[in-house]
Design a protein that fits this description.
With about 90 residues, the protein is mainly α. It has one domain. The protein contains three helices and no strands. It is globular and about 40 Å long. The N terminus is likely disordered.
């Protein structure tokens, strides 16, 4: 989300971390695995922390569900540009 409107509130480092976590649970071959569950928990914990600390204070009109959906979309787009195509089956 680093663009002129968001003023870089979500850093490239944040996006890399979130994208990796997203890949680990969204692309998991075993959705019940410990890794999948812990990646999902950490993804949403990190996302909530960014939202509370940086987004909500500047953009009160954006609620968490919108922010989470936009971030998931960005993660999906970033993963689709990598090899092999996401999700890899």
């Amino acid at each position: 989300m680093p663009d002129s409107d968001s003023e870089g509130i979500v850093s490239e480092s944040d996006l890399e971390t979130l994208t990796d976590l997203f890949r680990r649970f969204e692309g998991a071959t075993d959705p019940l695995s410990t890794d999948c569950n812990s990646a999902k928990e950490l993804f949403y914990f990190t996302l909530r922390q960014i939202y509370v600390e940086r987004v909500r204070t500047k953009f009160i009109e954006i609620d968490f569900s919108i922010f989470a959906n936009m971030t998931r979309k960005m993660c999906r787009q970033r993963l689709s540009r990598q090899d092999p195509p996401f999700p890899s089956l």
